[in-house]
Design a protein that fits this description.
A five-stranded mixed β-sheet has the order 4-1-9-8-7. It has one helix and nine strands; from the N terminus they run αβββββββββ. The longest helix is centred in the N-terminal third of the chain and has 22 residues, at about 1-25. The chain is globular and about 60 Å long. It has one helix at about 1-25; strands at about 25-35, 40-50, 55-60, 65-70, 80-85, 90-100, 120, 125-130, 135-140. It is an alpha+beta fold and about 140 residues long. It has a single domain, classed as Sandwich (Immunoglobulin-like). A hairpin with a 6-residue loop joins β2 (about 40-50) and β3 (about 55-60). About 15% of the residues lie in helices and about 40% in strands. Belongs to the plant self-incompatibility (S1) protein family.
């Protein structure tokens, strides 16, 4: 009986931490591929918040065309992500770009006044748009 109470406590702690994470202002990014036939073997996502060494690495298999990961939407300047496409047939990285999402000049993705905003990111072959509170990153393939 004591063992079941212990596991119930662990579940309760895990759920409360997840709820706190969402309440602290974490937003959702969705990854969308515009050309499923060109889907890579994996997509690497590495994110860094300014002033911290913490990095998150998320890998998406080729059959996952729409996925999400969580990023702290309260961060202002300097929050960035690297996206890397890996094509197993060529054993090469198709594209690796870094971009800054947040800044203070009025183009922050989470601005309330921005109902459906779009950003082209350094002409890098993908763009970001916001619909409601979800930011979607759409890949437009551009081999290098």
């Amino acid at each position: 009986m004591e063992v079941s109470k212990f596991f119930a406590l662990l579940v309760l702690i895990a759920c409360s931490k997840a709820d706190a994470r969402l309440q602290e202002g974490y937003g959702r990014f969705e990854i969308k591929n515009t050309m499923p036939e060109r889907s890579p073997d994996s997509v690497g996502v590495r994110c860094k918040r300014p002033g911290l060494d913490l990095q998150e690495v998320v890998l998406y298999p080729s059959d996952v065309l729409l996925h999400d990961f969580y990023a702290d939407e309260r961060v202002s300047d300097g929050w960035s992500c690297d996206f890397n496409w890996y094509d197993g047939t060529l054993s090469a990285v198709k594209m690796a770009q870094e971009f800054l999402v947040w800044n203070k000049n009025g183009s922050s993705p989470y601005l309330e006044s921005c109902d459906r905003c779009r950003w082209k990111v350094r002409e890098s072959g993908f763009y970001l748009y916001k619909d409601s509170k979800t930011w979607t990153l759409v890949f437009k393939w551009n081999e290098i």
